[in-house]
């Protein structure tokens, strides 16, 4: 990142203000940080939704999300016994539901399989 922000500095033969260049770099960095925070907040929200759905299952093999969100990574962390086979969640516009199968990671990768 340091090299990236160095590009905001005026060149040696420029009459541009170093202070203005610094302010521009700060504005840019602020936008980047806001986006990173926003993305991380969304990840936390998705984790909460998945955790609640996982805990509230009435059938071990089916998890129903109240709101659509990225769920696979969190489910794989929570479902250590590989119980959940299907995830039901609202569609993109919350007007219909979709059913998705849960792809379980293989225990052995292709290189580790013994023939």
Notable features of this structure?
single chain, 115 residues, alpha+beta, 3 helices, 3 strands, 43% helix, disordered C terminus
Give a summary of the structure in a few sentences.
With 115 residues, the chain is α+β, with helices and mostly antiparallel strands. The protein is 43% helix and 11% strand.
Give the secondary structure arrangement, pairings included:
Layout: H1 2-6, H2 18-55, E1 62-64, H3 72-78, E2 86-90, E3 97-101
Strand order of the largest sheet: 1-2-3
**What structural class do helix, strand and pairing data support?**
alpha+beta
Determine the fraction of residues in helical runs and give it as a percent range.
40-55%
Number of distinct helices: 3
Radius of gyration equals: 23 Å
Largest sheet data: 3 strands, mixed
Question: Which word captures the global form?
Answer: elongated
Commentary on this structure:
The chain has 115 residues and is an alpha+beta fold. It has helices at 2-6, 18-55, 72-78, and strands at 62-64, 86-90, 97-101. The chain has a 3-stranded mixed beta sheet, with no helix packed on it. A hairpin with a 6-residue loop joins β2 (86-90) and β3 (97-101).
């Amino acid at each position: 990142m340091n090299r990236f922000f160095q590009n905001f500095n005026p060149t040696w033969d420029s009459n541009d203000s170093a202070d203005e260049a610094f302010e521009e770099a700060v504005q840019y960095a602020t936008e980047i940080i806001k986006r990173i925070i926003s993305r991380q907040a969304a990840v936390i929200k998705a984790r909460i939704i998945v955790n609640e759905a996982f805990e509230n299952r009435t059938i071990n093999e089916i998890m129903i999300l109240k709101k659509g969100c990225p769920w696979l990574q969190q489910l794989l962390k929570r479902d250590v016994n590989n119980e959940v086979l299907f995830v039901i969640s609202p569609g993109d516009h919350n007007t219909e539901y979709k059913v998705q199968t849960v792809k379980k990671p293989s225990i052995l990768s292709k290189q580790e399989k013994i023939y």
